[in-house]
């Protein structure tokens, strides 16, 4: 089959749009979607200048999503002195998993000439995820601990690096899963928070000055296309699953979405576009409710709704 835009062989077919694209036109189409998302979400503020550049910290895990995001942001902003990119990699202490993906992060950052920071649970908190899973003092899934520690480090280092924006490589499948999970759990407040934390255009989000805003510029690109992009660009992405991965409910939703998308191409896109509209309405409705009971953790000083933050109480339970 030929590409729709030239006479090269097509390397992909997108059932949701009906398009067949060759490697060059496919790469161009991915880059275009990411740049359009950056514009629509107002990620580059008017007052960014070469003298007053914005620092964008990318959560760089070494998996295909964050590697593709980093490459595309580099291609987009390499000649733009208003944006400085920093890659931030978190080592959770998971034997045989993270070491290789850290290598991929170092290699990519070197290739692109961007600043790279590597931080670990071991150095920051004195724990490794492999040991946390063994101890399991709270009788929880591994990801429940890991998520608390990761969020803490991302926000601590976003502050330390004076980040204006924290960017992650969530793709269309990830976002459609989260949207559907929030719907099915019936948690409208969570949907409102999602809008203000990472989903809405920056200009429409409620001001949350105590947190660095987040953004997901890859969220219009399906997972398969991110993987194909990484492959065609020969990017040093590391693809193995974490041995502690345990989000069983997300797995069910993922399976459901695969089937729906197969039978009704375009389902992921329509879930997300409806969800974004509903999330904006919910965010308006809950506006002003947030932040009223925020305080500083008495142990570490981070912003929390409790006296001792979740990270500090987990660490206490682990020793
Ligand atoms: S799958 Fe779970 S335990 Fe593994 S790195 Fe991700 S959040 Fe951590
Ligand atoms: Zn073509
Ligand atoms: Zn704390």
From TrEMBL:
Gene3D superfamilies reported in the protein's UniProt record: HUPs
Entry superkingdom: Archaea
GO biological process: tRNA wobble position uridine thiolation
Transmembrane regions listed in the UniProt entry: none
InterPro entries the record matches: Ncs6/Tuc1/Ctu1 (IPR000541), Rossmann-like_a/b/a_fold (IPR014729), TilS/TtcA_N (IPR011063), tRNA_thiolation_TtcA_Ctu1 (IPR035107), TtuA-like_LIM_N (IPR054306)
Glycyl lysine isopeptide (Lys-Gly) (interchain with G-Cter in SAMP2) crosslink, residue number(s): 204
GO cellular component terms given for this protein: cytosolic tRNA wobble base thiouridylase complex
tRNA(Ile)-lysidine/2-thiocytidine synthase N-terminal domain location: 56-189
Residue ranges of domain 2-thiouridine synthetase TtuA-like N-terminal LIM in the record: 3-27
Organism: Natrialba asiatica (strain ATCC 700177 / DSM 12278 / JCM 9576 / FERM P-10747 / NBRC 102637 / 172P1)
Keyword tags: ATP-binding, Isopeptide bond, Metal-binding, Nucleotide-binding, Transferase, Ubl conjugation, Zinc
Residues that coordinate or bind Zn(2+) 2: 297, 300, 309, 312
Residues that coordinate or bind Zn(2+) 1: 3, 6, 22, 25
Chain sites annotated for binding ATP: 59-61, 65, 90, 169, 174
MF (Gene Ontology): ATP binding; metal ion binding; transferase activity; tRNA binding
Protein name: PP-loop domain-containing protein
């Amino acid at each position: 089959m030929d590409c729709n835009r030239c006479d090269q062989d097509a390397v992909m077919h997108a059932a949701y749009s009906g398009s067949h694209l060759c490697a060059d036109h496919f790469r161009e189409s991915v880059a275009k979607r990411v740049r359009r998302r950056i514009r629509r979400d107002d990620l580059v503020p008017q007052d960014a200048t070469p003298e007053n550049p914005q620092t964008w910290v990318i959560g760089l895990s070494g998996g295909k999503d964050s590697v593709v995001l980093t490459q595309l942001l580099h291609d987009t902003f390499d000649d733009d002195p208003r944006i400085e990119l920093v890659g931030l990699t978190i080592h959770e202490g998971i034997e045989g998993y993270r070491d290789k993906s850290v290598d991929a992060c170092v290699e990519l950052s070197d290739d692109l000439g961007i600043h790279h920071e590597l931080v670990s649970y071991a150095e920051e908190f004195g724990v490794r995820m492999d040991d946390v899973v063994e101890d399991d003092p709270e009788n929880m899934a591994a990801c429940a601990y890991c998520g608390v520690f990761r969020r803490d480090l991302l926000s601590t280092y976003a502050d330390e690096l004076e980040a204006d924006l924290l960017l992650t490589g969530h793709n269309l499948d990830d976002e459609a899963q989260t949207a559907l999970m929030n719907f099915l759990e019936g948690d409208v407040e969570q949907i409102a928070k999602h809008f203000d934390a990472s989903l809405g255009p920056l200009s429409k989000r409620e001001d949350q000055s105590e947190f660095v805003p987040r953004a997901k510029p890859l969220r219009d690109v399906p997972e398969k296309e991110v993987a194909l992009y990484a492959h065609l660009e020969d990017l040093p992405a590391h693809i193995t699953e974490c041995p502690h991965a345990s989000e069983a409910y997300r797995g069910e939703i993922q399976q459901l979405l695969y089937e729906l998308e197969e039978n009704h191409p375009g389902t992921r896109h329509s879930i997300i576009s409806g969800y974004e509209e509903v999330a904006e309405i919910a965010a308006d409705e809950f506006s002003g409710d947030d932040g009223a009971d925020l305080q500083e953790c008495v142990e570490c000083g981070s912003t929390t709704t409790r006296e001792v933050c979740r990270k500090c109480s987990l660490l206490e339970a682990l020793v």
